[in-house]
Design goal:
Aminopeptidase; single chain; alpha+beta; ten-stranded mixed beta sheet; four-stranded antiparallel beta sheet; 10 helices; 329 residues
Amino acid sequence: MNVRLFEYQWDTADPVYFSRFYLKSLSREYGWIAGYVADELRIVVPYTIKSRLIFKIATFQSVPMVMASQVTEAEEKTFLNGCVRLLAKMGVDFCSQPPAHAVFRVFPDNAVVTPFGSYIVNLDHPEEELWAGVHAKHRNVILNARKSGVRISFGPSHDIVKLHDILVQTMNRSSMKFVSRIAFVDMVRALGDNVEVAVAYYGDNPIGCGIFPFSKHCAYYQFGGSVDKTPLGSMNLLHWEAMRHFKSQNVHLYDFVGARIQPMPGSKLEGIQRFKRRFGATMKIGYLWKMPLSYRFYIYEFLRKIRARESKDLIDQELEARNCREGKT
């Protein structure tokens, strides 16, 4: 397969993460890599490149999009091998972990990899079928949240700073960092008409929110959270109303973004995944991966590990959890 840089023309039927405005919101250096067989365009993937100190880091921002009638897993692997070779020639030191919504079906040779998944709802079914697919406990708390006065509002008029505070609080409760306020606001503004902000209100107070980059292809629950204490079912109601909202706009899929394959029984992660699954979602299973392209990758990893404030990425977390389950640590 012939692999080369490509100038992609985004369409609203394509995943939003392929759009120029999204990639540009993340980095000044971005683009798309395409794979050809003879003169036939077969597959495309978007990437960004960021420089950090002496390191040049590439990130694939979505899974590859198949442009032909079919691309086998072997062909896709060949394509990804070509992509990382091309990035290495461009001076990239390593490919970092892709975002949690980018669950690859294959990965390049010599990558550091872990199985991963994401829960997805097909919105093409009638609303009655979608509601029937929601677990009875979810349906009950959704109805109770409505009765208690929780309401869901959509649109750009919300106080983005307050929503950022809610998201920071949510991540802090799990001892995790959230993106800076500037980066968050810039991303929301850059997405324009292709981001939906959903907010749960109790009285006049915002108590929960979801930030959804979307196109006709799919709406992604990229960011979300709530204040410490909310009426029972508030976030259940937010997701149900978001599903209804995107269905009304002829969006095909609703992606809860990110799922561990084997969360620890009884853990908070297991509870989060049960929450997502009970909306009638099906888990898409694949891989997250990262890959060294030069010796600088190992310097970067060493520096990252000795800095206490640098959190582990999902790949490291999953590999560590797997080693614990297998008694290797």
